[in-house]
Specification:
The complex is a heterotetramer, with 1 copy of chain A (531 residues), 1 copy of chain B (347 residues) and 2 copies of chain C (322 residues).
Chain A: H1 2-11, E1 19-28, E2 31-41, E3 46-51, H2 57-64, E4 75-78, E5 81-82, H3 91-94, E6 97-100, H4 112-116, H5 118-123, H6 130-143, H7 159-177, E7 186-190, H8 198-213, E8 217-221, H9 225-231, E9 234-239, E10 242-248, H10 254-262, E11 281-290, E12 293-301, E13 305-310, H11 319-324, E14 333-336, E15 339-342, H12 348-353, E16 356-359, H13 363-367, H14 374-379, E17 387-388, E18 391-392, H15 394-407, H16 424-436, E19 442-446, H17 454-469, E20 473-477, H18 481-487, E21 490-495, E22 498-504, H19 510-522
Parallel strand pairs in A: 3-8, 3-9, 6-7, 7-8, 13-20, 13-21, 16-19, 19-20
Antiparallel strand pairs in A: 1-2, 1-4, 4-5, 9-10, 11-12, 11-14, 14-15, 17-18, 21-22
Chain B: H1 2-18, H2 32-36, E1 40-45, H3 51-67, E2 70-73, H4 80-92, E3 97-101, H5 110-119, E4 122-126, E5 141-143, H6 147-162, E6 167-172, H7 179-193, E7 198-204, H8 210-224, E8 230-233, H9 239-248, E9 256-261, H10 264-272, E10 277-280, H11 283-298, E11 312-315, H12 335-343
Parallel strand pairs in B: 1-2, 1-3, 3-4, 4-5, 6-7, 6-8, 8-9, 9-10
Antiparallel strand pairs in B: 10-11
Helix pairs in contact in B: 1-6, 3-11, 4-5, 6-7, 8-9
Chain C: H1 8-31, H2 39-48, H3 50-64, H4 72-89, H5 94-118, H6 123-142, E1 147-148, H7 152-159, E2 161-162, E3 165-166, H8 167-185, H9 187-197, H10 199-204, H11 209-235, E4 237-238, H12 242-257, H13 268-287, H14 292-313
Antiparallel strand pairs in C: 1-4, 2-3
Helix pairs in contact in C: 1-13, 1-14, 3-8, 3-9, 3-11, 3-12, 3-13, 4-5, 4-6, 4-11, 4-12, 5-6, 5-11, 7-11, 8-9, 12-13, 12-14, 13-14
Classes of the chains: A alpha/beta (531), B alpha/beta (347), C mainly alpha (322).
The structure holds adenosine-5'-triphosphate (2 copies) and magnesium ion (MG) (2 copies).
GO cellular component, one term (chains C, D): plasma membrane
GO molecular function, one term (chains C, D): transmembrane transporter activity
InterPro entries (chains C, D): ABC_transp_permease
């Protein structure tokens, strides 16, 4: 009966929709993450799903893949046919849906081959022909111009390589579920771009356009307004689990988007006119000569925010981990806090003791402990402050965590909740706060605002900038050129494992960074990501 | 010659234990009901999972009912801390007698023995020590049983059966007190009555490891000593692991099994032809003799020097008398029941 | 893509256990000439370790799916004792007794799966508890004593010799091959691996995690029950205690096996080799007439040493199994 | 931020185990009037379960840090037997024997830590192996037999009664309080928790993960050795097997305890309550003269039921302990 009435409603619409969502709601133990959202995606449409951290985007995606069961009452229809909810495990494949999840959905301890071919291999009835799987995997990677060892374990790959792998997998799965002549289907991309360098994003968009050209639809989730404006046709904006705006991309400006998402105009953080000439050198790196990364000399001044960037394989993202001792270095020294330290013997323990801080990019594995409360994650490094002779003052810790959550705009503000219950962006805020509490002298960031929404991002920039003003030296490795442009006093562009260019002051703009990245790596036979 | 003389002596020993046992009064007649009146007894077995002990205690409870003694079992899984708890339970609840039946070593619960003595609880041990072993001084009384004689019978059985050419593997558990005299009995039998006999291997396996270690060890021993013709698991509960070991090493028919205790499932093994001989003791008899001895102590009479329960050999010729399937109290005749009734002055 | 080439470290890692086994055999053959290296000795070894091998194979299935099953030992005993009671005491034909004992295994598996997968209690807790309950039931129905007199029909099917080795060994071999093929070459096997390595990712990939975990637990209990049938047939009797004694060695073999053949993954061939490696060492030592306590030391020592060798071969990397 | 308010589900979850314990006491008090609910009974109960309680407390330390220690049972036995041999057989004074047995515990801990932390072998494998080795050594030095005749000096220190209960119970109580305070109210305790929940995050946050894990393993072995001293003192004798009997109940108690007081985390008070809850049930059943197999069923059933109650109270959420 339900299906009939809903069909009737859809029929009244002009064209048949690829995906129709009606009154979809989801409650997590009393908290309503989705409060009944409705929107449509047409065939051949690229549809943006936007909104601040924690507004329910990933929750929707996880309902669509059958991970979460929605509250009763909502409906999802694909090409006019109602989907029984909750969806059975794996049924999304028959419905021609393919996903890139926000945390990518890859298994670190298995091989590239196994991760790439998971849906084929697990869905098989007969025996697996590993040779055929290998060939198919190589071809899929080859079509994307990616060179990966199929036997390599996933956890030996960089975040960028992992993101690419997830995208290749999803596009392959979608292609495989389409039958000849019928090229429908929906590709769902939940924040696929934070780890992608610019040219990776372009390749992704190329793929998206190709799929759309064949009649498939794409649901695209991102916090990067420029990306959204570039690729989407329409967008739906969520706030606190409700649809608050529908935007026709062609008729909306950058600021219209931001206003739609945040609900207000935002004040952008602006870089101070120029770095202070008088500032002293806070940290000095010398003589790093690792396989794939050479840094003969690099000085960071007090109060300076130094950006590192480059294309895939340029090696820039390894520097923070080497300086912090998180990855073993064989060469190089770091002069910091008046001491010359050999990186060979550097350990994270030593680094923390010396007043360094590292915010890694791999949030679930290396950055946050999902099974522990927010308060423990937040105050992990600051336990001593709450230690009295009679033990830890737990209540004071919870209060302090509440204050910090407000300051960092963590939503919802419930310090005793587990970190894993926070949305991706909110968890990132907590973890940045964890390190900034230590007032580090040298702050090392890898993709610090990954998954952080446009509004909160300004807040984080302000906080990082304040830390710099208070005397810290900041190194920020990022593939997000806009972030670098807003935040950094100086940007180093890496190519083939070495610094290839340096941008200072007004030279630092999004386009300029992009241009230099290409120029520097083009000056040699092409690397891995290419047409 | 020496060999045939020895075989003759061994045969005499064996014949003596193939006769149906007869009852010998443990002492003067006395009014057991008067002694037992108002008394309680707590039996603590080594572990409640042991069918030999369980069988004795079940009979003790029944005999207790006959004479007006309240008997209770302290169920346990063989953990010393549970024995401690049992002793303390007896002390706290003013139980008159604690019966450490065949296994709980009084030395292991020494602090509790002391406390029991101070509280006036009589702690007895029955069917635990060999007469040659000094009992724990804190015991109120002791009813030893000759484990040496069991060994002696086992040794002579092999001599008798092989005509003086026994070659044996012995499976034992050194951690239990009766093992030493029992094994000594086997050695002495071979030394005295058989110049050509030998013991190829003695395998010592802790009780908790019977299930995993006996079978492979016996197999290895049989394979590395191809001339062996007897395996003696000194306690018959071990034989469940010895029987498959013999079969799996392909020695069925060549290697025989003789053992002791008369546990019913082993008697079933005899009926099936897997085991050759088992030295049996009637559990009901042990129960009666135990209660008899304790009550004599309480009545101020002298306790017997030994528990006085006779051994009786079961083999293929007489195993059916123990019942099908075998039971722990059948096959020993029943004149002892009447005998005890008379001694106890029960009408 | 580069073809995988011969790699010394990897080779050492994969075959260290096999090498250790061969070395053990060689050493004992020299020390015990004419006694150790005989067909008779090895045929006995292969047959008597069969129930332990079945347990090890049963264990690796839920272990791959990320669950511990500590109840397999108790399930083996339960199944053996049920056969004993039904066949030897109540005189049922074996053909009726076996289905009942397998049904008991099925019930154990379903109970484990219910509490682990539906109620979401850690598997260690549930199987610790269910093992204790099963052990109690075993003592009850067996009256804590060994039941002998199991039908020669069963003993024949299990213990009949082919090429001098009891049939049960060939069954175990077949079982190991099936498990190997399922894990390496079927979609189901890979699904189990995915579930074990990351439940969340497996769910996002559309696998029915709950069903897969439940199925693995049920299969492991069923295999354990089959192990009980093998045990009863091998001994011709069922005793209420020794299944538990197989548990720790089976765990040791499962983990030791995960260092061999396919290092870093629980695998059937590795587990089988591990069972027989440990048993060979112990047989040799007992033949030497060495006191029993040495075999405990060997068991533990060999486990640690063998894993250590393979760890050094892989540069002391963190392993994926926990 | 809203103040945490009274929450029925959470309350049920935290105190379900205590409730189950009280219920057990009430039922047995009614069924066994005048026998069960006596100071004498409970004082004995408290004392005899002390070694098991020490083991459960020892276990939760490495469990919190993410490592299993299956060797605590063997270590307890080793320590008790060393005291037995040195004091009762070789006539050393207790004051010399105790340090030696603690040193043996220390050695066990260091060996475990070396293979787990340095060689990076899964803790389950290492401690399975080291437990087997230790069990072999125990049989060797004790000649597989119980050693009695331990000095009254030790018996006095452990078994002397204060308010009717042996001193050993107060030691256990003090130990549980110390562990509770360390885990809940010190930075060290939090660090252990961080290490257990995510080694990588802990490492990058500057914690010395290897040292913390090693320290937890060493402390757990040392506590187990102390448990051995308590055991020897309680019995005045040392037997070579029963430490292993304590192992599974101690694991059960550690996990059961993790459903109470601080649900979702191994915690000392929960473990202590779990030990005494299980022991109370078994004592009551024993006093009723119920067949021994019922106690096994009770042990396992109580574990599963208690955890199930607390799981339903928390809405069957996935637990964090594995
Ligand atoms: N498993 C869970 N349990 C409880 N609450 C949850 C859970 N998963 C998500 N939430 C809550 O649901 C809300 C929506 O989260 P969701 O992950 O969908 O946000 P999002 O829009 O994807 O944000 P982001 O841009 O930061 O990724 C958040 O408030 C989050 O805290
Ligand atoms: N789980 C896996 N992960 C990665 N690679 C695998 C996996 N399983 C098999 N392979 C690889 O797939 C390839 C084919 O495997 P398969 O076992 O089918 O070989 P084959 O058909 O026997 O080929 P040949 O005998 O000619 O080498 C091999 O290179 C093997 O290493
Ligand atoms: Mg999200
Ligand atoms: Mg980006």
């Amino acid at each position: 009966m339900e299906a009939v009435s809903s069909l009737a409603r859809f029929d009244s619409q002009p064209a048949v929709t690829a995906l129709a969502v009606r009154d979809l709601a989801k409650t997590f133990g009393g908290a309503r993450a989705l409060k009944g959202i409705s929107f449509d995606i047409g065939p051949g449409e690229v549809h943006g799903l936007l909104g601040q951290n924690g507004c329910g985007k990933s929750t929707f995606v996880k309902i669509l893949c059958g991970f979460h069961a929605p509250d009763p009452g909502g409906q999802i229809s694909l090409y006019g046919e109602a989907v029984p909810l909750p969806m059975a495990a794996g049924s999304f494949r028959d419905l021609k849906l393919a996903f890139v999840h926000q945390q990518l959905g890859l298994v670190p301890s298995l091989t590239v081959l196994e991760n790439l071919r998971v849906s084929h291999v697990t869905g098989r009835r007969g025996l697996i022909n590993w040779k055929a799987e290998r060939i198919a995997a190589s071809q899929a990677l080859g079509r994307f111009g990616i060179d990966l060892d199929l036997n390599a374990r996933l956890d030996s790959l960089s975040q960028t390589q992992r993101a690419l792998l997830a995208i290749v997998r999803a596009s392959q799965d979608l292609a495989d579920s389409q039958s000849e002549g019928d090229k429908g289907g929906i590709l769902v991309l939940d924040e696929p771009t934070p780890f992608l360098p610019r040219e990776g994003v372009q390749r992704l968009f190329g793929l998206v356009r190709q799929l759309v050209g064949q009649g498939a639809s794409v649901l695209f989730i991102s916090h990067d307004i420029d990306e959204v404006r570039e690729i989407t046709d329409r967008a739906t904006v969520l706030r606190d689990g409700e649809v608050t705006a529908r935007i026709e991309t062609a008729h909306a400006s950058h600021d219209d988007f931001i206003e739609g998402i945040v609900g207000r105009r935002i004040v952008r953080v602006t870089r101070p006119a120029a770095a202070r000439a008088t500032a002293s050198v806070k940290a000095a790196v010398r003589d790093i000569a690792e396989p794939g990364l050479t840094v003969p000399a690099l000085d960071i001044q007090e109060g300076e925010i130094l950006g590192l960037t480059g294309l895939i394989g340029s090696g820039y993202e390894r520097l923070p981990y080497l300086l912090f001792g998180a990855d073993r270095a064989r060469t190089g020294t770091l002069t910091f806090g008046g001491q010359v330290k050999s990186l060979r013997s550097m350990t994270p323990r030593q680094a923390v003791a010396d007043g360094m801080a590292l915010l890694p990019a791999d949030r679930p594995k290396a950055s946050g402990i999902g099974s522990l409360p927010i308060v423990d994650n937040l105050l992990m490094l600051d336990m001593r402050r709450f230690q009295t002779r009679l033990g830890l003052r737990r209540r004071a810790m919870v209060e302090e965590a509440g204050k910090l959550s407000t300051q960092y705009e963590v939503r919802p503000n419930k310090p005793s909740q587990k970190l894993s219950a926070l949305s991706g962006g909110n968890a990132q805020k907590v973890l940045l706060a964890k390190w900034l509490l230590k007032r580090p002298g040298l702050l090392l960031l890898d993709e610090p605002t990954q998954g952080v929404d446009v509004g909160a991002r300004q807040q984080l920039f302000r906080i990082v900038r304040q830390a710099a003003t208070d005397g810290a030296a900041v190194i920020c490795a990022s593939s997000d050129f806009e972030q670098l442009a807003q935040l950094c006093d100086r940007v180093l562009i890496f190519a083939r494992g070495a610094v290839a260019a340096e941008l200072i002051g007004d030279e630092i703009t999004k386009d300029h960074i992009a241009e230099r990245c290409y120029v520097e790596s083009d000056s040699r036979p092409q690397a891995r990501i290419d047409g | 010659d020496a060999v045939s003389d020895g075989v003759a002596r061994a045969t005499a020993v064996i014949d003596q234990y193939r006769k149906l046992p007869t009852f010998v009064a443990p002492g003067a007649d006395f009014d057991i009901e008067a002694t037992a009146k108002g008394k309680t007894m707590l039996s603590i077995p080594n572990t409640s999972a042991n069918q030999f002990l369980k069988g004795i205690i079940t009979r003790e409870i029944a005999v207790g009912k006959e004479i007006g003694l309240k008997v209770q079992e302290w169920q346990n899984q063989g953990q010393p801390s549970q024995w401690v708890q049992g002793m303390d339970f007896a002390i706290n609840n003013k139980i008159s007698i604690v019966d450490l039946i065949s296994g709980v070593n009084p030395a292991v619960v020494e602090p509790q023995m002391q406390a029991a003595k101070a509280a006036g609880v009589h702690v007895f041990a029955s069917h635990f020590y060999d007469p040659s072993q000094p009992p724990d001084p804190l015991l109120a009384g002791n009813l030893p049983v000759s484990f040496y004689r069991q060994g002696w019978i086992l040794g002579n059985w092999m001599i008798y059966k092989t005509g003086g050419h026994a070659n044996a593997v012995i499976v034992k558990s050194d951690e239990v007190l009766p093992t030493a005299p029992l094994v000594q009995g086997i050695h002495d039998a071979l030394a005295k009555n058989c110049p050509d006999c030998k013991i190829s291997a003695e395998i010592n396996v802790g009780i908790t490891e019977w299930g995993t270690k006996i079978q492979p060890s016996v197999q290895s021993a049989l394979l590395s000593h191809p001339k062996v013709n007897y395996v003696i698991p000194i306690y018959d509960s071990m034989s469940q692991f010895v029987v498959p070991a013999v079969r799996l090493s392909g020695k069925t028919g060549q290697v025989h099994i003789a053992t002791s205790n008369g546990t019913p499932f082993v008697l079933d093994f005899i009926r099936n032809g897997d085991v050759e001989m088992d030295i049996g003791e009637s559990l009901d008899w042990i129960a009666r003799a135990t209660i008899d001895g304790y009550m004599r102590e309480l009545a101020g009479l002298p306790m017997p020097k030994e528990i006085g329960v006779p051994y009786y050999l079961f083999d293929a010729s007489n195993v059916k008398t123990a019942g099908i399937p075998a039971s722990a109290n059948k096959g020993y005749g029943d004149d002892y029941v009447a005998g005890f009734k008379k001694v106890w002055e029960i009408k | 893509m580069a073809e995988p080439r011969f790699h010394l470290g990897l080779f050492v890692e994969r075959f260290a256990l096999v090498g250790a086994w061969l070395l053990t055999i060689i050493v004992f053959s020299i020390v015990l000439p004419g006694v150790f290296l005989t067909w008779g000795n090895f045929s006995v070894l292969f047959a008597t370790q069969a129930p332990g091998a079945v347990l090890a194979l049963a264990l690796i299935i839920p272990l791959t799916a990320g669950d511990y099953d500590l109840s397999v030992g108790a399930t083996l005993t339960l199944s053996a004792v049920i056969i004993g009671v039904l066949n030897a005491v109540l005189q049922w034909p074996v053909a009726l007794a076996i289905p009942v004992s397998l049904a008991a295994g099925l019930a154990m598996g379903l109970i484990n799966a219910f509490f682990i997968v539906y109620v979401r209690i850690p598997s260690l807790v549930v199987t610790l508890g269910s093992a204790s309950v099963a052990a109690g039931l075993v003592q009850w129905i067996s009256n804590s004593s060994t039941i002998s007199g199991i039908s020669p029909a069963l003993i024949g099917v299990i213990g009949h010799r082919f090429l001098g080795i009891s049939l049960v060994f060939y069954y175990v071999l077949a079982l190991a091959c099936i498990i190997w093929i399922v894990f390496e070459y079927t979609g189901l096997g890979r699904s189990i691996l995915f579930v074990g390595r990351s439940r969340e990712v497996a769910r996002l990939s559309g696998l029915n995690v709950d069903w897969i975990r439940a199925a693995c637990l049920v299969v492991s209990s069923l295999l354990a029950a089959l192990g009980g049938v093998a045990y009863a047939g091998l001994l011709g009797a069922a005793d209420p205690f020794s299944g538990l004694n197989y548990l720790l060695p089976a765990f040791a073999a499962a983990y030791l096996g995960a260092t061999a053949i396919l290092p870093g993954r629980f695998n059937a061939l590795g587990a089988l080799i591990a069972v027989y490696f440990l048993a060979t060492g112990i047989t040799g030592l007992t033949m030497l007439g060495i006191p029993i306590w040495v075999t405990s030391v060997f068991n533990g020592g060999a486990l640690i040493v063998a894993v250590t060798v393979s760890q050094f071969a892989r540069g002391r990397e963190e392993t994926d199994i926990v």
